[in-house]
Design brief:
- The chain has helices spanning 2-15, 24-38, 51-66, 74-83, 86-97, 106-133, 147-153, 162-182, 189-205, 208-228, 231-247, 269-286, 297-309, 322-330, 332-350, 355-368, 378-397.
- The protein has 399 residues and is mostly helical.
- α3 runs antiparallel to α15 (332-350).
- The chain is globular and about 60 Å long.
Amino acid sequence: MRKKAHFVLLKLLYLFPFIIFFPPFFKSAYVSLFVFASLFFMPSIFPIKKPRLLIISCLIFFVYAFSLFYSSNPNLGFRMLETKLSLFLVPISFLFFLSNTPILNKICYKKLSSLFLYSSLTYSVLLVKYFFIYTNPKYPNIYTSGFFQSAANNLPLIGEHHIYISLILAASILFFLGVRHATLNKIKGFEGLFVILVFMVLWILQARSILISLALSLLILYWSNIKKMKSKKIFFIFFLGAVMFFMTPQGNNRFLELSNYFRYNKLNSASQRVIIYNCTKDLIIKNPIVGVGLGTTQRLISNCFQQKSGDNSRTLINTHNQYFDFYLTTGIWGLVLFFWFQKEVLRVFKFSENQRLEKSVFFLFSAVLLFENLFDRQTGVIFVYFFTFILIKRCTEKK
């Protein structure tokens, strides 16, 4: 029975890179099936590996759950807690049930990275095809700001918010390049072309926080190579970036919104964040210890946003910063716990021979969390945690 369960686990791992294609109900089924298969390997001998990391990881979920007791909207909070269930299930599966069972090896790692790239490429091609047939009265043509983001969200069956699509595309690029860099394998010509095509779709979606975080993560990954580069090569890279930036139509270039960051505009998402951050700060000052409870945060920010901007078109607004969300929703304890979790993850990566790869992926997720609430949706929770614990599991198996 264990052999069959091990076979299922491997197939599920190879299925993970295709999460970008999963409809919402299948994401839940995927995690449930992985947890069920891992149950067959529950250790009979203790202690397990990384018990502190396991405990901290699971406590994050229970801190969210505890906040329901003082939430002003526990019904909504409970539904939101369901989306965060992977905060508990994923660590339990990887660090407890599979603690003494090796499921990752070098071949699996390389295969995962290739599957991520091919999956992202396929999704990108489908998305580009859909751009040509998508119509929406609100966005009359492709040069209208928000057209591509709306099309991505409305892609039949597999559409998703452009932030989560961009996150998966960026992580697939980084992971593929990172594995090739760690194993000293040259990137083949067609693989390089695939990476460029995926990046072009990522650029079209214009998720600023993810594009900036990816650029910084690539710097971490290739820093030793960059230091050896000639100035002409570095100049050429910057030149290509500048050409791509200035050739992007003004209506599609969301980086231009940053020029009016402090001047509120209903159509400028960057300027809206200033008000959202101010509202979040005010609410944190009023609730510094235990927060406001899960299910309450978005309504309170929305009320504050409407008062300060006069814009009543948005009814539920998140903090646009996962760290602020931890603090405002669960109080100082939730934020400290999450920082502790990040510290323990870095401690695991510190002793890995591929630590530049693991740390670059870790930085990508951590940096994006500064600007996005990735844990507000099931896709974000599952992807970030599953990916992170695959890297952790690989590190612990090699010891």
